[in-house]
Automatic annotation (TrEMBL):
InterPro entries: HotDog_dom_sf. This is N-terminal of MaoC-like dehydratase domain-containing protein.
Length: 127
């Protein structure tokens, strides 16, 4: 179980690779047609990419956690066919009002290392 004690501020935890398929973009655009921009990934998909990386990297995680917020910084959006490498790390952790907060640092780049987007995701960790 990936528990609160396992998080070390400043430490990279792992990474996840995903080849962005046009079919995934198309599925998104079926739900949100206004987001369609050809082969460019819609901005609304950034949380999908980061959430997949977190769920694949922090395994197994305890049930009952709460997503407390997320912000993004974007250099550019990936295109269909590009491989996205997303690294997950712990930026900070603290206990506040009886809750265990973890701020995850999530950075996505191309396979060649070109920065795509970064995120900071705040979570209440369950265990």
């Amino acid at each position: 179980m990936f528990d609160y004690a396992a998080f070390q501020p400043g430490q990279a935890i792992g990474s996840h690779r995903l080849t962005l398929e046009q079919a995934l973009i198309d599925q998104w655009c079926e739900l949100y047609p206004a987001d369609a921009d050809g082969a460019v990934m819609p901005p609304g998909m950034m949380p999908v990419i980061t959430s997949r990386a977190v769920s694949h990297t922090l395994r197994p995680s305890p049930p009952g956690g709460v997503h407390g917020g997320q912000v993004f910084r974007v250099s550019r959006l990936p295109r269909a066919g590009e491989e996205i490498v997303t690294t997950v790390g712990c930026e900070r952790k603290e206990e506040k009002r009886g809750r265990k907060w973890v701020l995850l640092a999530i950075d996505s780049a191309t396979a060649d290392g070109e920065h795509l987007f970064s995120s900071r995701m705040n979570n209440v960790w369950a265990a």
